[in-house]
Amino acid sequence: MLPDEARAELLDFEVTRELRGLGPSLAESVARHLVAAGMYLDEDPALALAHARAAAALASRIAAVREAVGLAAYHAGEFTTALAELRAARRIDGSPRHLAVMADAERGLGRPERALLLARDPGAAELGEESRIELLIVLSGARRDLGEPEAAVLLLQDEVAASGVQPWSLRLWYAYAEALLAAGRPADAARWFASVATVDDAQETDAADRAASLEEAEPGSPTEAGPSGEEPAS
User: Fold this and answer.
1) Could you give the CA distance from residue 176 to residue 162 in angstroms, rounded to a whole number?
2) Which of 65, 111, 131, 215 could pair with 127 as two cysteines, CB 3.0-4.6 Å apart?
3) What values do phi and psi take at 41, rounded to 5?
4) DSSP readout, the chain?
5) How do residues 190-213 score in pLDDT, each as one tens digit?
6) Average pLDDT, the chain
7) pLDDT digits over 137-189, tens only?
């Protein structure tokens, strides 16, 4: 059942334009299901997936609809479905924008080696900066999955060396800290978890707790420079 607040006019304009060929009544139903899928994506991914599938039952040839099913399936942990639907969306519109999600779905299926293959996808060169960073984060995780933590560190170290705080810094620095920890560098990991905590105003992560825990375990250990380029205070 569609919630009253899932109004068609809330749908992204570009997606609305994709639906124009369906006819007004059908387009409105699809749009409302897509809006509902977006509303529930984080709090109830199973319900989001149900709405996305309802939209797909009405308009399966529209890229945005297949994309919605893929993303909802990913959030619901249905990784096989996520991959199938995101590939279908890409066949329709040609966009590589969800390569990172596809790679992470491969990890979720226990196939990190397949995740790494997506780095060679021709579409990877077309990604915007944020999408490119997201893909690198996933690939770093795949290296850790394979027991290659040093390679995981190398994948990210040039990116974290860049100056300035970006919208993706929280995820990037957290992933770098995880890679450092896996590589047996807890003091450096603590520094980067602490850096995450400085930009995590909404407390979306446990970075502050992890930094404190590592610092307690390694008191007085030297650490590498953080994102500001400054050495830790003595």
Assistant:
1) 13
2) 131
3) -55, -45
4) ---TT--GGGS-HHHHHHTGGG-HHHHHHHHHHHHHHHHHTTT-HHHHHHHHHHHHHH-TT-HHHHHHHHHHHHHTT-HHHHHHHHHHHHHHH---TTHHHHHHHHHHTT-HHHHHHGGG-GGGGG--HHHHHHHHHHHHHHHHHTT-HHHHHHHHHHHHTS-S--TTHHHHHHHHHHHHHHTT-HHHHHHHHHHHHHH-TT--SSHHHHHHHHHHHSTT------TTSPPPP-
5) 999 999 999 999 889 999 999 999
6) 92
7) 999 999 999 999 999 999 999 999 886 789 899 999 999 999 999 999 999 99
Tokens of 213: 């825990």
The tokens describing 231, both together, are 């050495």
pLDDT tier at 217, thresholds 50, 70, 90 = confident
pTM higher than the cut 0.85: yes
